[in-house]
Design goal:
Elements lengths: L5 E2 L5 E2 L1 H11 L2 H23 L7 E5 L1 H4 L3 H13 L6 E5 L8 H14 L2 E7 L7 H5 L4 E4 L1 H5 L4 H17 L2 E5 L4 H10 L3 E3 L9 H5 L7
Helix pairs in contact: 2-4
C-alpha cells in the first residue's frame, strides 16, 4: 500500500490523518492524488528497470470518493501507465471511507473503465465507513479490507463475529479479503483460523521510503 507523508522544511513528518481530511475539504485532494498516481507509476518503472522484468505485485493507492467520481481520473491513470510503460495490474485504487460518494453513477462509470483497463478497485476500511457492501457490486470492487479497529479488538466475541461475517461474505461474493492493522502473531493466527490469509500491518513491515524499499531483503521479485 502506498502511504503519503508530508515533511515540513524543518524535517517534521506529518501523518495523513492530520492533513488528508483538510485536503478533502478544500479540494486539494484531487491534484494531490493525480500527482501521486504519476509518482507511483514512475517508481514502479524504476523498480522494473532495476530488476529487469515486470513486477508481479500491485501497488495500492488510497483514493477519496471525490477523486473516484472525477472523470479526469481515467485520463490521468491511462497517461501515467503509458508514459512509464507499466501494466495496469501494477496499480490498484483503494476507496477510502472518510466521505460518501455523491455521484455514484459517475463513480460506477469510472470503475467500469478502470476495470476494463485492468486497474483493480478495492474497498478500504469495510465495516467502519460510508461505503456499504452494495458499493462492492456497483463499483466492481475485487477486494475488501477489514478495518483495523476490528483487528485491534480481535478475540472479543463482537469483533470475531463481524470478521467471520465479512470473511463469509467475501467467500460467497468471490472477492479477495485483506485484514489490516496486524501487529501481533496472535492476531495473525486467529485470522488464519478464520480463513483470512492476506494480512497487512506492522507485524510484517513498517512503512518505509521508496529508497529503502529498493534494498529491502523482503522485497523479492
Amino acid at each position: 500500500e502506498v502511504l503519503i507523508r508530508w515533511e515540513t522544511k524543518k524535517g517534521k513528518v506529518i501523518l495523513p490523518d492530520e492533513f488528508i481530511p483538510q485536503c478533502e475539504t478544500n479540494g486539494v485532494i484531487t491534484p494531490l492524488t493525480f500527482q501521486l498516481i504519476n509518482t507511483v507509476a514512475r517508481d514502479i518503472h524504476k523498480l522494473e528497470a532495476l530488476h529487469g522484468k515486470t513486477l508481479p505485485y500491485y501497488f495500492s493507492i488510497n483514493i477519496s470518493a471525490s477523486v473516484l467520481q472525477d472523470p479526469e481520473l481515467i485520463d490521468i491513470t491511462r497517461s501515467a501507465l503509458a508514459h512509464y510503460h507499466i501494466t495496469p495490474h501494477n496499480i490498484a485504487f483503494e476507496l477510502t471511507e472518510r466521505s460518501p460518494i455523491d455521484n455514484i453513477e459517475q463513480a460506477e462509470k469510472n470503475c467500469q473503465k478502470l476495470n476494463a483497463m485492468g486497474v483493480q478497485i478495492k474497498l478500504d476500511d469495510v465495516g467502519n465507513g460510508h461505503c456499504d457492501l452494495l458499493s462492492l457490486q456497483r463499483l466492481q470492487a475485487t477486494t475488501i479490507k477489514i478495518d483495523k479497529v476490528f483487528i485491534a479488538d480481535i478475540g472479543s466475541s463482537n469483533a470475531n463475529t463481524i470478521i467471520k461475517s465479512l470473511a463469509a461474505f467475501a467467500e460467497q461474493a468471490e472477492v479477495e479479503i485483506i485484514a489490516e492493522g496486524i501487529e501481533t502473531q496472535q492476531q495473525a493466527e486467529i485470522l488464519l483460523d478464520i480463513g483470512i490469509r492476506y494480512h497487512q500491518g506492522f507485524l510484517y513491515s513498517k512503512p518505509m521510503p521508496f529508497d529503502l524499499l529498493i534494498n529491502d531483503k523482503h522485497f523479492n521479485v
